[in-house]
Amino acid sequence: MALITTENITKSFNGSQTVLRDVSLELRAGEVLALLGKSGSGKSTLLRTLAGLVEPSSGRVTYRGRAIHGANPGVGMVFQNFALLPWLTVLENVELGLRARGLPSQERRRRAVEAIDLIGLDGFENAYPKELSGGMRQRVGFARALVLEPDALLMDEPFSALDVLTAENLRGELMSLWTSARFPTKAICLVTHNIEEAVAMADRIVVLADNPGRIALELSVPLTRPRVRRAPAFTTIVDQIYAALMGQAAGAEQDTPLRRPLPPATVGGLAGLVELLGAQGGRADLHSLAAALSFEVDDLLPLVDAAALLGLAEVAGAELLITSAGEDWFDADIPTAKSVFARLATANAPLVRVIADALRTSRNGRLRDEFFLDLLRGGFPEHDALRQLATAVDWGRYGELFSFDAVARELVLEE
Ligand SMILES: Nc1ncnc2c1ncn2[C@@H]1O[C@H](COP(=O)(O)OP(=O)(O)OP(=O)(O)O)[C@@H](O)[C@H]1O
């Protein structure tokens, strides 16, 4: 049974950039659903839409078949940064949601103590958040959501602020509670950028593509619990998702700075990646590459996307292969490497090409950064526009195509 649905929802903030386009999704009773995607693909926005905290620009959201306007009464939320009130004790933090529902104080206390026990915080009722470790704080976050006994538990990167061991421990405990009869909610929806976390926890994974956020892939995870990360069936699913996420980069068709944004990778990061690939004989499994670097997928993807966009490497399934251009760059002396990079960036990175062309046709080979930022603001929010320009300047400067005069705030053509 569908508990919460979104029907063809689209969302743009302030009428500008489209963050979600035509997303239809169901959260069903009995399932753990993971929303997976790169940073900025709209995962949090989609989750907040399910919670009724964000109103879609078009389309509708229903809870048990009824359209919702405003906060969804059937959900409890857990946030990445715990979102606890520091001046309240654990017990008071957990009771807070019940207070809003107008429950009598004895009933509030009974239910809060029960939720605190369930999540393993027994004995910490009177502690303040600052006295607790990160893992314990997030347990309070869980207790505060579960005490409401909501139909659905919505979690926005709940483990990503915790260290690796604490996160793994809490994930394991949450999943064993979920499979026990004691768990008070009927469904879980988890936002994550961590592929292994999604495969470890979810029954169904929806992968979002970015620019604008839309559903790129949906797959079910037919593995029994508890799940073993090293099992071949587990890694096969992880690899499948890696390949799908990488495929998105290769699929970008239109060649303009707004349609084909530059992945936020520095030349230094690219050189590191290509060097590592070279050292591994020119090909590497993305899954083990991420593991070898102790990277999360979010950290690795911009580098891989940038290497693929520039033509330094190719993604084939879940593998990254160095191209002959990548080898030329890697093997060359510095001046040759710079000119190889300049050629690749001009051919394959639309923003770099547009800047170089504009500077060539300008009166004195100089143009104010505001000129390019204005163009970029037509397609990106401020932060992303700045990041696009910074990436282009980094690439253009290394390739000796143009530089940036920070005093005059002008881009300057290199001769
Ligand atoms: N309230 C808002 N006002 C304007 N833009 C917003 C707002 N909330 C989100 N955005 C924009 O929407 C896009 C998607 O953001 P969202 O947080 O949903 O993505 P995400 O996939 O969860 O990313 P991350 O993993 O980095 O949190 C981003 O470009 C972000 O800048």
Quick recap:
By secondary structure, the chain is an alpha/beta fold. It contains 15 helices and 16 strands.
Outline the structure in words:
Strands 6-7-8-3-9-10 form a 6-stranded mixed β-sheet, with helices on both faces. A 4-stranded antiparallel β-sheet has the order 2-1-4-5, with helices on one face. The model has no long low-confidence stretch (mean pLDDT 89). The protein folds into 3 domains: 2-228, Rossmann fold (3-Layer(aba) Sandwich); 229-331, Arc Repressor Mutant, subunit A (Orthogonal Bundle); 335-415. The N and C termini lie far apart (66 Å). With 415 residues, it is α/β, with parallel strands linked by helices. It has helices spanning 43-50, 90-100, 105-118, 134-146, 164-179, 195-201, 232-250, 267-279, 286-292, 297-310, 324-331, 334-348, 350-361, 369-377, 382-398; strands at residues 2-12, 18-28, 32-37, 58-63, 66-67, 75-78, 152-156, 187-192, 204-209, 214-220, 283-285, 313-316, 319-322, 366-368, 402-405, 410-413. The radius of gyration is 24 Å and the shape is elongated. The structure holds adenosine-5'-triphosphate. Adenosine-5'-triphosphate (ATP) binds at residues 13, 19, 37, 39-45, 193, 381. One of its GO terms (molecular function) is ATP binding. Residues 4-235 form the ABC transporter domain. It comes from Allokutzneria oryzae.
What secondary-structure arrangement, pairings included, does this model have?
Elements: E1 2-12, E2 18-28, E3 32-37, H1 43-50, E4 58-63, E5 66-67, E6 75-78, H2 90-100, H3 105-118, H4 134-146, E7 152-156, H5 164-179, E8 187-192, H6 195-201, E9 204-209, E10 214-220, H7 232-250, H8 267-279, E11 283-285, H9 286-292, H10 297-310, E12 313-316, E13 319-322, H11 324-331, H12 334-348, H13 350-361, E14 366-368, H14 369-377, H15 382-398, E15 402-405, E16 410-413
Parallel strand pairs: 3-8, 3-9, 6-7, 7-8
Antiparallel strand pairs: 1-2, 1-4, 4-5, 9-10, 11-13, 12-13, 14-16, 15-16
Helix pairs in contact: 2-3, 2-4, 3-4, 6-7, 7-10, 8-10, 11-12, 12-13, 13-15, 14-15
Bound molecules: adenosine-5'-triphosphate.
